[in-house]
Amino acid sequence: MKLSIRRAAARTAALFGALALAAGAAVAAPAGQPVKIGSTLALTGPLASTGIVHQIVGEIYVEQLNKKNGLLGRPVEWIVKDDQSKPDLARTLYEQLITVDKVDLLMGPYATGAILSAMGVAQRYNKILVHHTFGIPSLAKYDAQFPTWSLGPDPAATFPNTLFDALAAAGKAPKTVAIVTSKFPSVHFMSLGAREAVKKRGMQEVVFLEWEFGNRDFGAIAARVKDANPDFVWVGAIGLEGNQLLDAMKKIDYTPPLHFYMYPAPGPMAQAPEAKNALAATIFEEHPPYLNNPGAAEFVKLFNERAAKAGIPYTQVETQAAASYSAWQVLDAAVTATKSLDDKVLADWLRKNRVDTIQGKLRFDGPSNYGDDLMAVKQVQNGRWVTIWPKSVAAPGATLMTK
Amino acid sequence: MGLPSFSLLAQSVLSGVFLGALYGLLGLGLSLSWGLLRQINLAHFALAFLAAYLCYQLSAAGRIDPLLTLALIVPAFFALGVAMQWVFARFEITPFNSLLVTFGLTVIIEALIQSIWTADFRRLESGYGDAKFKLGFLYVPAPELLTLVLALALSFAIWAALRHTDVGKALRAAAEDGPIATAFGVNRQALALMLSGVCTALAGVAGVCIALSYTLAPAQMYGWIGVVFAAVMMGGLGRPLGPLFAGIVIGVSEAVTMTLTSPSWAPLVSFSLLILVLLVRPRKA
Fold this sequence. Notes:
The complex is a heterodimer. By secondary structure, chain A is an alpha/beta fold.
């Protein structure tokens, strides 16, 4: 009996020891040569206001990785260079990242022009490129590029229909539409898609206007929209252009009955009183059901804190930050699943598998490696963006507001 | 498309006048430093944006009325302009080199603004932003009207000062022939310091007007360079009224172009007009 008690005690001690070792291994700091991931971001120049969002997201993700077990048990080192919002500089810096810094993996830069530059370099060196903010899917020709901004392969055809479905479902299908748009490439082609949708749905286009990106005076455009008196205004705006047009409309006492902005600066638009009920496109907002996606709630909390600390006026997670975080999730998932840093192995795996991200499940098996168009419609309601359509991602109880 | 309604056209012209006034106000200091000091001061735009951010900061954090910030910004920028001119004179910077040096200064000021206020958009919320009134069928926004009034007042005041005061005459004489002016007892160095101070203070005033009407981002300073340079060259270097009138011509032409044709044609207007002026009156610019 004594012997069996001793044996039992020894076994218990051994069991506890093994458990302790296992637990230690699970939280062990990653060791060995770091896995180097290289990218550029627009940290200065005209795109820097959004570039900083991607910088914060990358820092959060790399910290999260290193707090766990890194990648393949090795620590992760993120080398990020400032491309000054210049696509040509991004090209040079990606060359440097591959040939001088000898990075193991690449992460995409911010914005379509820079991503297109990075894609060319990645293709030359047969590296995979996961990227987060490429706006024109038809230009993504490289077979080892993987987009995480879930536009779908033909957003100009799909998204305007999502928007007009949202209006129709709320009983607000417009009869007359004004389409005014920046000639900035990633919004211009969407506006042309909206024109097609208007025609196909039998609505009347009462005015179509284009302006050059960088336009300062929106007074005449606002006056022409007011003069046309449409039921609905589609504004192909990027960044601050939406606010500038709203400012100009306010000055002539005009409030459009229903108004949509393609890619507005989220903070300034949500906070502008004249942007009440403005609509826009999104892939993520800070409310359920998005917050139920894996990692979303924790990321949102961290991002809110870091963005506030960085002095960013709008600290909420929306399309930019969500697409960025998804890109890191996709790269992480591919490396973890394949236990490899080999670009070809990773690319093959990504083409065949779906990845859980904070914006939903992403797939890369469609044209240009695009999957589903997950873009939804959001609206400024009481100074906050809330998703209103489709119902599967709408905030609980949220519907289109018109007053 | 059919012809626009009269009210649409009139509203657009008014909007062009207001924008043109801002072109003129921005161009005023630039024109004076180019014409009278022989300095092509690219940093003028960066200084205007620095003033806009200071106005934003003083109003948002310091709760000071945006117009009252002029009482701080104008003297501070005058002193800054004097200091800049002292450095330029000390190192005998030529007109061409002034272009390079002030471009460098622009980049430094942009980086400074970005490090303090970040690259994100900043909007000055003040009572002026929403203030407007109706004149017949025309809507008149208060901040833009204020810009027009300031541009007119400053342009005419400087024109009168240059034309009718001894200091003004001395400045024109020094620009015309420095050594002869010196021989007649004109203190060119002191005048240059004062003029540089005035030009930089004018950038400060333009900056406050920008803050009242526009959302701010550091890189936006570059968006004004082309059209304001066109206004300055069309208006004539060193002529206080020139940039204002040329600016209004450009602003109205842009607005009418936007109303009658596609708004995307508007950016071509300023340079087309400049080329036209150079062809018709080559010695004007």
